[in-house]
Structures are given as structure tokens and as C-alpha cells.
Amino acid sequence: MMRAWILPVLLVLSGSALAAGQVFKGNPGTAAALLPAFLAFAGVNSPLIFPRSIGAREAQRRSAVDGRPVVFWRPGCKYCIRLRIRLGRGARRLHWVDIWRDPAGAAVVRAANDGNETVPTVVVAGRPHTNPDPEWVREQLSPSA
User: 17, 18, 30, 138: least buried by Cβ within 10 Å?
Assistant: First the structure.
């Protein structure tokens, strides 16, 4: 759990330090541009933009019941962020597994990707799909899901 927060915290601290340095150098405009940029980058790398993660076994159990896809992801992955943003509100209809928090989830991803932890890996009806197009993932959500 702690590993997921390291990058966002470092980005906030670094951005704050750089912005403060710019203020002390007499460049408040540069500081005003730097800090929001660092905060935005920290935000998209934060686990907060993703729906609450559950364990791989629970996600697979729920998927078997409701037919919804399972998304294996990790914080800081630009392709995971792209998928999450492009899915919009539909992202909450999927089961999300953070492979950095769940060793069983990481094992599922390695098994599907020749030993690599390549994410996002989306499992639909038991079949893994590595870095699928977000529109395709959206199509996999049944209207009743």
C-alpha cells in the first residue's frame, strides 16, 4: 500500500520545493505554473483516481458472478491512467486489482504476459487482454453490469 503513494508524495514535495525556489528567486509566475503542473501529475499518478482495488481472487469471483471485466493495474502506469480516464464513469463498473498491493494479481498478470508484469491487463470471460483499447473495454461491459 505504501508503495502506491511514494511517487505522488515525491511529486508534491518536489513541486513545492521547486515553486518555493522560484518565488525566492523572484519568479512567482514560474512558481505559479510549476506547482499546479506537479500537483496535476501527482494526482493522475495517485491511487485515488482509480476505483477501490480488491484482491485478484475476489475480483475473479465477482467477475464470474456478474460478468464484468477485471482490470489488473499499478499506480504510475501511464497506460493504466489512459484506460481509467478514457473509461470515465464506466471504470467503476469494472473490478480493479492493484498488482503492487496483491501478489496473486501480479501472478495472474505474469502468467498472462510471459512472466512480465505488463499492465493494464484486462481479463474478460477468463481471457487476458494486454493494454486493450479503452473503447473495446467499454464495449465489454454489458448493459446490466
Answer: 17
In this predicted model, what pLDDT tens digit does every residue of 5-58 receive, in sequence order?
A: 777 788 888 889 999 999 999 999 999 999 998 888 777 666 666 678 899 999
Backbone phi, psi, residue 112, to 5°: -85, -15
Show Cβ contacts of residue 13 under 8 Å, excluding neighbours closer than 6 positions. Answer: none
By three-state DSSP, how is residue 63 classified?
Answer: helix
Phi and psi of 96, rounded to 5°?
A: -105, 135
Specify whether the CB–CB gap between 3 and 47 falls below 8 A: no
Distance (Å, rounded) from C-alpha 15 to C-alpha 113?
35
C-alpha cell at 134: 479503452
* 128 beta partners: 123
Q: Contact, 38 vs 12, CB < 8 A?
A: yes
